[in-house]
From TrEMBL:
PROSITE patterns: LRR (PS51450)
Protein's recorded name: LRC72 protein
Pfam families: LRR_9 (PF14580)
Organism: Vidua chalybeata (Village indigobird)
Highest taxon in the source lineage: Eukaryota
Length: 224
């Protein structure tokens, strides 16, 4: 029948805390100092405010196991994703392992901009395989064939480069250097510009008019 947690104010080094089956209605200001907590049971209480409860637990970077079921806050339709997003260290929530798919869903729900950025640069989608292996469920019964790469000469400005065309995009390279060469010759155009900022007057110099204005020179280099 515990309702007040002020008696925990000096227990800084607790790693496990079992407060389930009590009458707690609010934990604000009572647990945030327990930064070493790894296991916290708060199920079967009367906690109603999901935001305030999760905010109290945000500083627990070591928290791995958390139970909040059988509280009024657990009936929120987005309760589980909310806890997963704002308490990323939790691995076992309400006796159920947190999956990678749930973490991705929580990110899309509560931070769609970051999710879009991560998806656009393919974070989490890289397949770590060697150049001599194939990706997929089926196994290759034949030895890897070397790509046949007929060369086509092209002119880019005053520089003649070789464009390597692969005859089969599904056959892995036998020589890693071939893959590097193909990637190097098929890069998109890159442009870099530089400015000599020493020739540009500062705000103070402009204000005092101690330095004459010089035309700004910008050097632009394009290369592939």
């Amino acid at each position: 029948q515990i309702q007040d947690l002020t008696f925990l104010i000096k227990n800084y080094y607790l790693t496990e805390l079992y407060l389930n089956n009590n009458e707690l209605t609010d934990i604000s200001g009572a647990l945030k100092h327990l930064c070493s907590l790894q296991i916290l049971f708060l199920h079967n209480n009367e906690l109603k405010k999901l935001g305030k409860t999760v905010k109290e637990l945000k500083g627990m970077i070591s928290l791995q196991t958390l139970n909040l079921f059988q509280n009024p806050l657990a009936y929120d339709p987005d309760y589980r994703l909310y806890v997963i997003y704002f308490l990323p260290s939790v691995q076992l929530l309400d006796r159920k392992l947190v999956t990678q798919r749930e973490r991705e869903s929580a990110l899309h729900l509560y931070n769609p901009k970051r999710a879009w950025v991560m998806q656009s640069i393919a974070f989490g989608k890289r397949v770590d395989t060697s150049l001599g292996t194939t990706v997929g469920s089926s196994r290759c019964t034949q030895p890897a064939r070397r790509r046949i790469m007929p060369s086509v000469l092209k002119w880019f400005g005053n520089v003649q480069v070789m464009d390597l065309l692969c005859s089969s995009c599904r056959v892995p390279f036998e020589d890693p250097e071939d893959a590097v060469l193909v990637r190097a010759t098929t890069r998109s155009l890159m442009e870099f510009s530089s400015v000599d900022w020493n020739k540009l007057a500062t705000c103070q110099e402009r204000r005092l008019k101690n330095k004459a204005e010089e035309p700004l020179e910008k050097l632009t280099v394009q290369f592939r």
